[in-house]
Amino acid sequence: MNLIKASILLTISAHLKSTQAKEDVFTPTRISHERLSANPLYVTNESLLVESLSTDGLVSITDIPGFGILKRNLMAHLHSCLMEQGDAFPRQTMKDGTVRRTIGTVTLPGDRDTGSANGATPQPVAWKSSDSDLSASCQDFSKNLHDFRTTVDETTNAFANRLSFEMGSSLTAPLMTTEDGSHSFNDVKDIVSSGEHLEHFHSYQKTGYHSSEQTIDLHVDQGFFIVFTPGLIVSHNAKVKPDLSRPLVESEGFYVETSDGNRSLVQFDASDDLIFLMGDGADQYINNQLRADSTSQQKRLRAAPHAVSLKTHDDSLARVWYGRMILPPKDAYIPSTAQTYGDVRNLLSSLPDGERQAGVGCSSYTMRALDGTNSTDEEHDGDDTQSDKSQCDEGSIYCWFRC
């Protein structure tokens, strides 16, 4: 049995090395959680974030206390839990044949009217049964979920606070207001604390012979930025129970378009706890608020185009991933369209991909907002199952738009 395990790990490792040898490889800037969370007033003119976010559009946060173990304990049970939940959660077939299953939820901002504007509220997962009746895998997943989401939330706030400090007076204020002008969103941390945070837990499986097309085409996400855990490969047995004797390993297949236009494989490793990747919102409501002087213009944040290309694997494996999209405040007003960001999102959610006009919800008039499923029209499992649905058909928490 040990020889089998060793053989599997060596095969995966050799495959990763051979793939990387043939492609451009990009290694993200790594910043420790301690440095990110340090009081910026006691750091002498140090730019932790802006330089990398302006050039690359992403950074990795490492050494988050206890998070590495917490993340693996949670994600080890995600795929098995999704399989046991059956049709309770969405399932899409991507254009390359990859099957993606999703648990979606959201963290809501505090209520300004009650004075709790900074009190983010994680919404519960909509299980198909009560917590006490959940399967063993879902119970193991669920028991780690609160601490996982809390840690992501705290790290997101630390990132927003640090980025606000580094952008400083280079941004005009306020960045946004409500339609009636009764409330202002003055800086980055105001936007982050006042917007909804969509959260998706995905499992991906690509088994058998499938197309060599990309799983998800090159795109930028519509939010201000996304926070995600690099993909992990998990194992399960014939009964789709987690095989905890086989360690989780980092997945290949995540690509970015670098600032020089090259498409590069991102080289993640076990030290990468959370990745912060800028979205189209950086162009929509941050970069257009930079002052005209050269120092301020050097802080222009780069929305990072990225893609996913998964390879066929054994059916005892799955790639698991978590992402959180930071949306702008729903009641923030867009003067150019005479709508709020909430209005725009509701409009996009109500329309099929083909009916969404270019430019709506994106920074460029040539970009079309899509919900990111890349699914086929129908999926056949041998018994003519029903057609795959768009993410937005499952409810607004599944509308993960991209430009």
How would you describe what is shown here?
The chain is globular. Strands 2, 3, 4, 5, 6, 9, 11, 12, 15 and 17 form a 10-stranded mixed beta sheet that branches. It is built from 10 helices and 19 strands. Mean pLDDT is 87; it is low at 3-21 and 374-388. The chain is 27% helix and 21% strand. The chain has a single domain (2-350), classed as Sandwich (Jelly Rolls), CATH 2.60.120.
How would you summarize what this structure contains?
With 403 residues, the protein is α+β, with helices and mostly antiparallel strands. It is 27% helix and 21% strand.
Helix content: 25-40%
Q: Average pLDDT, to the nearest integer?
A: 87
Which regions are unreliable across 5 or more consecutive residues at pLDDT < 50?
3-21, 374-388
Q: Report the oligomer.
A: single chain
Overall 3D geometry? Answer: globular
Q: How many structural domains?
A: 1
Sheet with most strands: 10 strands, mixed
Q: How many distinct helices?
A: 10
Query: Which fold name fills CATH's third level, the topology?
Result: Jelly Rolls
Primary descriptors:
10-stranded mixed beta sheet; 19 strands; globular; disordered N terminus
Q: Helices, strands, pairings?
A:
Layout lengths: L1 H21 L2 E2 L3 E3 H5 L12 H6 L2 E5 L4 H9 L2 H8 L5 E3 L5 E10 L12 E2 L13 H32 L8 E2 L6 E2 L2 H7 L2 E9 L10 E4 L5 E11 L13 E2 L3 E4 L5 E4 L7 E5 L2 H5 L8 H4 L8 E3 L8 E10 L6 E2 L4 E2 H10 L53
Parallel strand pairs: 1-14, 2-3
Antiparallel strand pairs: 3-15, 4-5, 5-6, 5-9, 7-8, 9-17, 10-16, 11-12, 11-15, 11-17, 13-14, 13-16, 18-19
Helix pairs in contact: 4-6, 5-6, 6-7
